[in-house]
Design brief:
It is an enzyme of class 2 (transferase). Pfam families: HATPase_c, HisKA, PAS_3, PAS_9, Response_reg. Residues 295-513 form the Histidine kinase domain. The protein is of the alpha+beta class and 650 residues long. The chain has four domains: 9-150, PAS domain (Beta-Lactamase, 2-Layer Sandwich); 162-264, PAS domain (Beta-Lactamase), CATH 3.30.450.20; 350-516, Heat Shock Protein 90 (2-Layer Sandwich), CATH 3.30.565.10; 534-648, Rossmann fold. Strands 8-7-6-11-10-9 form a six-stranded antiparallel β-sheet, with helices on both faces. A hairpin with a 5-residue loop joins strand 9 and strand 10 (238-249).
Length: 650
């Protein structure tokens, strides 16, 4: 330890942590800042601990696999972020610069530490470190011989932080650079001791006047300067430098010199650019995702429109055939569920943030189980599973969104089917326990390893490698189920005794007390027809146009249909409709253009225009209004809503 020279007070009390170690990491010297951060006394560290002992497990692994080999090969390690542990067990994220040098035939590593809580904190610590270095420079001018050994250690610290010192003597116009700055730029000795003109020529021409102005202003105002600029490397490349400093003056107020610190921030700037580029790419990807979802929603809604119309037509035809009633109810239920899910698909960000709108009503859990089993039946049959359903002993009523409850149960059933080998057994049961209904889905499948039970409900969580099956999916099903259960005020948990021992998922939801149960709702009544209107339907989907026109005609309206925009405008001029329902994505001109052309006619100003489209985002509704539409309806159209609109017309 006697070979380690004394350090100046500016080094000892620097705002950054400074540590000297032997090649194996044994701490030889630690300044007061470092000791204070980690709650050690110097005696507890020096000669008794290796620096890597203060790293977390991951940090020690990184030290062994990367840090030590790099330091051995290239003599320095720059801006490494490692989590370290204080004597109290607190974890501190640190930015570390290290460099290796020999002193008195012995190898030492000089380490500079900065708390990496955030960039601003890091920059504040760098500024404080630079100020400390500036103070030590003033001492070094007067005591150069005495503090030569200390200057060597300080030089290592500056080198580790990729700093360099420069100064300009005003009288001689000479500019001098420290060895650290020469090392950063790899310029020759002859260039180091150059005039200010020679120095300024190394500054990028776009930054040169800015640098000169900063120096001139600092001299005139006797203030510090701070500037970023590009400095030419010996290779011809450009380093991004941050310069900070000030001028010195005689007792008479005459400027003597300008000096300061230059810090190579090229890596930081490159990282910032990468982050900026990455953000741009993410923004582009997010925009493309939104566009894709909007297009997908449009394409999924369009086929649903004629199906919904035909259902309404079937409803108009009274029949006592129970099979027809059953068939119609199944189709209507699944069209409604598909429409509901498409609506949520269009707002996928709300789903990920748990902001899904619940359409609650009082429902019997047994009915939800039956509907969920129905939607999962195909997958069960495909994989030859035996599904057993144990219904509750008495009706259990909950206040919930029926589509979401069906989605919860069917997702759990599908999950069990996917991860159970063919021919397995799956059991769905429900029972009341206190003021909760308990839903359980158990299987004889591949099970869940104990270490993965805690993460099973995380987004994109999948079991591996046992789940490498054709039904693998994206791993969002259980995360979505968990989110929906929580939105209903419930809980979900998973059980498994291990791999190949099956699993059980248990959902608990609050029930409605008997005093809160509402009278059962009857089937919806056939809507009262609106006053007869002349209505033109324009849609390039022939099935959608004809079925909607037929449905409107069956309700007492006089209708015509067109399958392109120009024909629609021409028919409107002849037919003079009171109401026009127009699709937006037509083959020749858009529905917006149709609205514009209609409104250009005197008779068209009184027509009630309704946009009917699969595009259902807010911006689509705004575009429709701007084009002259009075109303925007998203496919598939709810005929009750349309009938209400027609009844309100005067």
């Amino acid at each position: 330890m006697n070979t380690i020279p004394d350090l100046p007070s500016s080094f000892e009390h620097a705002a950054c942590g400074l540590v000297t170690t032997e090649a194996d990491g044994t701490i030889c010297r630690a300044n007061s800042t470092f000791c204070k951060w980690f709650n050690f006394t110097p005696d507890e560290l020096i000669g008794k601990k290796k620096i890597q002992e203060l790293f977390t497990v991951g940090g020690r692994f990184f030290h062994h696999t990367h840090w030590a080999p790099l330091l051995q090969m290239q003599g320095s390690v720059a801006e490494v972020q490692i989590d370290m542990v204080t004597s109290d067990g607190e974890t501190l994220p640190m930015l570390i610069n290290a460099s290796r040098a020999k002193y008195s035939d012995k190898t030492f590593d000089q380490l500079a530490f900065f708390v990496a809580t955030d960039r601003k904190s890091y920059e504040r610590e760098l500024i404080a470190a630079r100020k400390s270095v500036e103070d030590s420079l003033a001492d070094l001018r007067d005591t150069q011989k005495k503090l030569q050994e200390s200057r060597d250690f300080l030089s290592i610290a500056i080198h580790s932080a990729r700093m360099g010192i420069w100064s300009q003597d005003i009288a001689s116009n000479q500019v001098s650079w420290s060895q650290e700055l020469q090392h950063l730029t790899e310029l020759t000795d002859s260039t180091r001791w150059a005039t200010s003109e020679d120095f300024y020529r190394l500054i990028h021409e776009d930054d040169r006047s800015k640098f000169e102005d900063a120096i001139h202003n600092a001299i005139q105002t006797k203030s510090d300067y701070a500037i970023e600029f590009r400095l030419q490397h010996a290779s011809g490349d450009w380093l991004v430098m941050e310069g900070r400093g000030h001028a010195t003056y005689s007792d008479g107020g005459e400027v003597i010199s300008v000096f300061g610190i230059l810090i190579d921030i090229s890596d930081r700037k490159a990282t910032e650019k990468q982050l900026h580029d990455l953000n741009q790419q993410l923004s582009l990807a997010d925009r493309r995702k939104d566009e894709f979802l909007a297009t997908l929603g449009h394409e999924l809604r369009n086929p649903l429109a004629p199906i919904k119309n035909v259902l309404e037509i079937m409803r108009l035809k009274e029949t006592e055939d129970s099979f027809m009633h059953w068939s119609r109810d199944i189709i209507e239920r699944h069209v409604s569920q598909m429409t509901h899910l498409i609506d949520d698909l269009m707002e996928v960000s709300r789903i990920s943030q748990g902001r899904v709108e619940l359409r609650k009503q009082q429902i019997d859990i047994n009915e939800m189980m039956q509907n969920a089993v129905e939607s999962s039946q195909a997958l069960m049959l495909e994989q030859n599973h035996t599904l057993t359903v144990t219904e509750p002993e008495h009706p259990i009523i909950i206040d919930a969104d029926p589509t979401r409850i069906i989605q919860i149960i069917s997702n759990l059933l599908n999950n069990a089917a996917k991860y159970t080998p063919d021919g397995g057994r799956i059991h769905l049961r429900a029972f009341q326990e206190g003021d909760e209904v308990v839903l359980s889905v158990s299987d004889t499948g591949i099970g869940i390893p104990p270490e993965q039970l805690g993460n099973i409900f995380n987004m994109f969580s999948q079991l591996a490698p046992a789940l490498e099956r054709s039904h693998g999916g994206l791993g969002i099903g259980l995360a979505l189920v968990s989110g929906l259960v929580k939105l209903h005020g419930g809980t979900i948990s998973a059980r498994s005794e291990g791999e190949d021992k099956g699993s059980e998922f248990i959902v608990r939801l609050p029930i409605v007390t008997p005093s809160e149960v509402l009278a059962p709702q009857h089937s919806r009544a056939r809507p009262e027809n609106a006053e007869s209107r002349r209505i033109l339907v324009i849609d390039d989907n022939v099935d959608a146009a004809e079925s909607l026109a037929f449905l409107l005609g069956a309700n007492g309206h006089t209708t015509l249909s067109a399958h392109d925009g120009i024909t629609g405008v021409e028919l409107a001029a002849e037919f003079r409709p009171e109401v026009i329902l127009s699709d937006i994505g037509l083959p020749d001109i858009t529905g917006y253009e149709v609205a514009t052309r209609i409104r250009q006619n005197a008779w068209g100003k009184e027509v009630y225009l309704i946009a009917t489209t699969g595009w259902g985002q807010d911006k689509d509704k705004q575009l429709a209004g701007a084009a002259g539409f009075d109303k925007h309806l998203t496919k598939p159209i709810d005929f009750q809503e349309l009938n209400s609109i027609l009844k309100e017309l005067r």
